[in-house]
From TrEMBL:
CDD domains attached to this UniProt entry: OmpA_C-like
Protein's recorded name: OmpA family protein
Sorted UniProt keywords: Membrane, Signal
Signal sequence, start to end: 1-19
Length: 203
């Protein structure tokens, strides 16, 4: 039976559960929920058919040598956790997100964001082996090219703050999105403070 998943996390978890729960002559695959609550799916196939698991704790069961697609039902979440306690203990903690804001036109954090930055630093340092994605944004004041550069500069400034606290540089990705993805939609050339930001994902 060959599971193929639309999500790497689901692939790993489904494979682990397959190994943990399989007892001849029956093989089972259970889809676990994503830590961030986002939807996911895994396709479980046999020689005679396939089924897609798309809801948390859906289970596909196939008897070795039997004909037809796997049978799909719903596993009991508590029983799955009890039977695979070690697997759940090895799962990484959920990602944490932080947003810091900047004074107009530059890379100076607002006073309130200094506090948020300290919280993000503490969260990153407390997570062994974690990774950080830093994404810079701007408002609509200035040209698109200028804002692309400014957003990346902001992201790199935040990245440097993590590096200064001895967080490994190879585990920090910094990108700039300019004035794209505005949380507050405005016309061009509007200085909106909520759009001048860097999002930090600690995972």
């Amino acid at each position: 039976m060959t599971p193929r998943s639309h999500c790497l996390l689901v692939t790993l978890l489904a494979s682990a559960l397959l190994a943990a729960c399989s007892t001849p002559p029956t093989t089972r695959v259970v889809l676990l929920p994503q830590a961030d609550g986002k939807p996911s799916a895994v396709v479980v196939s046999t020689e005679d058919g396939e089924e897609t698991l798309s809801q948390p704790y859906e289970r596909a069961t196939a008897k070795l040598g039997a004909h037809g697609a796997p049978n799909v039902d719903k596993a009991d979440p508590e029983r799955v956790k009890q039977q695979n306690k070690t697997l759940f203990e090895l799962m990484p903690p959920p990602a944490q997100s932080f947003t810091v804001y900047f004074e107009v036109g530059g890379t100076v954090l607002t006073a309130a964001s200094q506090v948020t930055m300290n919280e993000a630093l503490a969260a990153a340092l407390a997570r062994s082996g974690g990774e950080i994605v830093v994404t810079g944004h701007t408002d609509t004041v200035g040209t698109q090219a200028r804002n692309d550069n400014l957003s990346l500069t902001r992201a790199l400034e935040i990245r440097q703050l993590f590096i200064a606290r001895d967080f490994p540089p190879v585990r920090i990705e910094a990108v700039g999105r300019g004035e794209r993805d505005l949380p507050v939609r405005t016309a061009d050339e509007v200085a909106e403070p909520r759009n001048r930001r860097v999002t930090i994902e600690v995972r």
